[in-house]
């Protein structure tokens, strides 16, 4: 069938790929690369898959704990991070295209909120899970192993650096510094978003440059598309998070 997908979370060149892709069945093994077009096929997905995703991620946690760096994070925090990652992937299904090549990544909102609640290490774990979930629902677009690893493991994990402002936010909440809260939330959203989109920009330059319009270099193409998407995502996330902390500071307190 003709590809008409919503590239809501495809990081590097939303709207630029025009290809004929296969329609996969429900077998989870059919999530990966369609070599004839160089991208992963997007299967039919719905909000009903969320409980399955959540249960899978909770079960997956113990394995990830042994392989990666989670020994310093309590199980309760990790489960909370899994829930926020599941919420992020659900929001990723909401169409947010602005023109042919720019999207707003709504999943950034819950991930930044979690980062401000729990800090950098926990948020990196949650962002890493968010990247994994793209594979589970068939919403990953891959040209090569390295490109896929960069855009879905490294990039999504890097949104966790929004948690660098967690201690400052908790202190501002405790001391009742209302104006500082808004600034900290915005700095956190911009830091996490641009930490993530830096990797999408790099991957876009190296791997997706051939999709640039005629006469436009790969560097400029990736910078404009990912820069615009990152900027719009950071602005929207900042606005929503400011409204949330204004209405309920308890959401940001662990």
TrEMBL record:
Transmembrane region(s): 45-63, 75-92, 98-116, 123-143, 149-169, 181-199, 219-245
Keyword Zinc: no
Molecular function via GO: thiamine transmembrane transporter activity
Annotated InterPro entries: Thia_Transptr_ThiT
Source organism superkingdom: Bacteria
The protein, known as: Thiamine transporter
Keywords: Membrane, Transmembrane, Transmembrane helix
Cytoplasm listed as a keyword: no
Gene Ontology CC terms: plasma membrane
């Amino acid at each position: 069938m003709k590809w008409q997908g919503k590239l809501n979370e495809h990081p590097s060149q939303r709207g630029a790929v025009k290809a004929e892709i296969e329609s996969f069945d429900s077998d989870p093994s059919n999530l990966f690369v369609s070599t004839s077009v160089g991208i992963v096929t997007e299967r039919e997905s719905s909000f009903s898959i969320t409980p399955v995703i959540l249960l899978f991620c909770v079960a997956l946690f113990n394995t990830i704990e042994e392989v990666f760096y989670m020994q310093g994070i309590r199980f309760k925090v990790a489960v909370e991070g899994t829930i926020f990652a599941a919420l992020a992937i659900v929001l990723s299904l909401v169409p947010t295209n602005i023109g042919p090549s720019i999207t707003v990544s709504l999943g950034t909102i819950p991930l930044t909120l979690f980062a401000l609640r729990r800090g950098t290490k926990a948020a990196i774990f949650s962002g890493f899970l968010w990247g994994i979930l793209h594979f589970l629902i068939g919403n990953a677009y891959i040209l090569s192993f390295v490109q896929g690893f960069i855009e879905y493991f490294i990039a999504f994990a890097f949104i966790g650096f929004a948690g660098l402002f967690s201690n400052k936010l908790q202190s501002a909440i405790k001391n009742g510094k209302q104006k500082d809260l808004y600034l900290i939330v915005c700095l956190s959203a911009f830091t996490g978003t641009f930490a993530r989109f830096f990797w999408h920009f790099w991957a876009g330059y190296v791997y997706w440059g051939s999709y640039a319009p005629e006469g436009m270099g790969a560097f400029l193409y990736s910078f404009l598309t990912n820069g615009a998407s990152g900027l719009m995502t950071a602005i929207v996330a900042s606005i929503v998070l400011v409204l949330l902390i204004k209405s309920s500071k308890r959401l940001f307190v662990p």
